[in-house]
Amino acid sequence: MRAALELSTERGFGTVTTAELAGRAGVTERTRFRHFPDKREVLFDVEQRLTESVDAAFAELPDAVPARRRWSRSPATPRG
Q1: Exposed e or buried b for every residue in 26-40, given b needs 16+ CB within 10 A?
Q2: What confidence tens digit (pLDDT) does each residue in 55-72 have?
Q3: Alpha-carbon distances of 5 from 1, 9, 11, 16, 17, rounded to whole Å
Q4: DSSP secondary structure, 9-32, as one string
Q5: Confidence tier at 80 by pLDDT (50, 70, 90)
């Protein structure tokens, strides 16, 4: 995931190949494919993990904290 973020930041995700992702991560393409069947899955996994981490952090706040009330939502509900 870190390799995908680095390469995407450097050159844009659309130009990065799966071979480059694997090489930057220090794994073979076969290993990368075992964990992430498509290169887009790498970044989607990062987004999901980040969202879960933020959700967990806000869940620990007391209900009275306004930020918790604004953040609390189902994953399918857009913020806005």
Answers
A1: eeeeeebeeebeebe
A2: 888 778 776 666 655 665
A3: 6, 6, 10, 10, 13
A4: HHH-GGG--HHHHHHHHTS-HHHH
A5: very low
